[in-house]
Amino acid sequence: MKTLNEYLALPYRMELVKDPDEGGFVVSFPDLPGCITCGETLEAAVANAADAKRAWLQAALEDGLPVREPDDLENYSGQFKLRIPKSLHRSLAEHARQEGISMNQYCVYLLSRNDAAAR
Fold this sequence. Notes:
Layout: H1 4-8, E1 15-18, E2 25-28, E3 36-39, H2 42-62, H3 86-99, H4 103-118
Pfam families: HicB_lk_antitox
Protein name: Type II toxin-antitoxin system HicB family antitoxin
Domain HicB-like antitoxin of toxin-antitoxin system: 19-78
């Protein structure tokens, strides 16, 4: 098992979200479930996030809980195979042609737009 300092040195992904209702920012670490904090300013939220990450890791290590290491983009190829109905394939190809881009670029655009909307 790694030490606290070894875990702190790992590149955990931090997600910052502006809080439209309360103001300020909410910060979480997707690889550290329940590790969440906030701050009135972006700088305060980031500083609080460092403290929250340290406290979360320290508590997990003291309690003997497993600590997940950060997800590494090297684990993803950027490719996946998808089977779709022929009618959808035709529709996507036609829309891509109308936009003057490849179907691959068009599908990436659609996936990105919908993924962002889901957040």
